[in-house]
Specification:
Radius of gyration: 35 Å
Order of helices and strands: HHHEEH
Shape: elongated
Helix content: 25-40%
Largest sheet: 2 strands, antiparallel
Structural class: mainly alpha
Number of helices: 4
Number of strands: 2
C-alpha cells in the first residue's frame, strides 16, 4: 500500500479527485478486471467504483475508455413459416372408467368427456354423500 490516510477531523468522508475517480473507473471497466480487488486496493467500497464508472461514462468530457460496451444495436430476426397443426391422434379403442363413491353411487365414464363437466359432476356426487 503506497498511501495511508489518517482522518482526524469530524468529517468522515474522503474526497477523491476527478483524476483518481477516472483512474479507478477505467481500471474497473477493463476487460477481466476484478472490481472488488481494485476497490480493496484503493480503500473504497466496490459499489462506489460502479457508481463512479456509471457517472463518468455518462459525462461528455470523459475518455471513451470507460464505455467499453458496444452501443445497442438491433439484431436481425427471421420469422419462420407457421408449422402445420398436429394431426389428431388416431382413434383408439373407447376407454371407460368407473368411479364408485363411498355412499354407493357409481359413475361410469366412456370416451373423453369435457374436464369441467366431469369435475362438476364428481363434485356434486361427492357433496351429495356427506
Amino acid at each position: 500500500m503506497d498511501r495511508i490516510e489518517v482522518i482526524t477531523s469530524v468529517e468522515r468522508r474522503r474526497k477523491h479527485s476527478l483524476a483518481e475517480k477516472e483512474r479507478l473507473a477505467i481500471a474497473a471497466a477493463a476487460p477481466g478486471a476484478n472490481v472488488v480487488e481494485i476497490a480493496r486496493a484503493a480503500g473504497v467500497d466496490p459499489s462506489l467504483l460502479y457508481r463512479w464508472r456509471r457517472a463518468l461514462s455518462a459525462a461528455p468530457l470523459i475518455s471513451s475508455e470507460l464505455d467499453t460496451r458496444d452501443a445497442p444495436t438491433f439484431v436481425p430476426v427471421t420469422i419462420a413459416p407457421p408449422t402445420p397443426a398436429p394431426m389428431p391422434a388416431a382413434e383408439s379403442a373407447p376407454s371407460m372408467i368407473t368411479i364408485e363413491f363411498a355412499g354407493g353411487a357409481r359413475m361410469k365414464i366412456e370416451g373423453a368427456p369435457d374436464a369441467k363437466i366431469l369435475a362438476s359432476v364428481i363434485g356434486a356426487l361427492s357433496k351429495a354423500e356427506r
